[in-house]
Predict the structure.
Amino acid sequence: MATIRDVAKAAGVSVATVSRVINKNEYVNKETEQKVIVAMQELHYEPSSLARGLAGKKMNTIALMIPDISNPFFPGLARGVEDVAQQYDFNVFLCNSDDLAYKEKSYLEILRKKSIDGLIIISNNVNEEELEPLRMANIPVVLLDRPFNEQNYSVVRSNNRNGAIMAVEHLLAIGCKKIAHIAGPEKFVTARERRLGYEGIVSQYSWYTPSLIEHANFDIEGGKQAVTKLVANNTDIDGIFAGNDLMALGALKQLIKLGKNVPDDIALCGFDGISLTELTQPEITTIQQPIYEMGAAAALTLIKKLKGEITETKIQELDVKLIIRGSTEKGKKLPLAT
Ligand code: RIB
């Protein structure tokens, strides 16, 4: 079976030129392109995905680095990334960093050595210095969800602050008179933006005090612990905005354990829109991020960069949506268990 080298020899060009004709990712003059096409036809050459990568030692592979594979939000992003990558004949190399700086650095070195084509990264730890080896290797990077900076990279994220405002305004609209916030870790820009959105609304009320904010680690256990403190320190709260759905799930479980009726004693709103929030009783109202669309947009941005179709860096801020469910429908009788 003919190889890419046979084609190059027959056409009188380099392997890299043949690969550029196959990948269509760099300019090849028409005469040379025609010689390569004729050689491929005469030799009945079928470019393999390996052949596609030979020129620049690229393997039509992009990497996605996520911080917590156990949080359904991130696999939801990965689904969007992979579907778009497949449409453009790219494979996806998934890295789970556990939000640990040393794991992220180790993965970055592995990815550089493997000559992946491009990287989509969700990280608060990396910085431009750590991404410099990839830049030197001409490996483009797109920042997703929680960018460490928005000046020098293409970014895809949702409108976190606006989503927090929507959550608090909804709790006020259903009659809540004292609203607390379970905030994610301050090191994450997504958590900070949501806290700022919350504070921007509640700080105008006389009942607001900083003790109405408890931080947790974007997980179920953190939501439980935060509720215990909030209820102990503020016996009259009647609404809670949780900065992500896992903390909202923990909050719901702990509120019920503490004998609180959700929503009639304390209404609850989460953030993300993961499907687990539909499985609880009551179902949890949440601010739905366009999770799949965020992943898809990040992959499309990276692949267009690889094809030379876009060169500028840009910020894509996607809108979020309030999904109203039982945890904020006060006064509504729950369906009798049948
Ligand atoms: O649930 C994980 C959280 O971390 C999400 O809200 C997402 O935006 C990420 O920042």
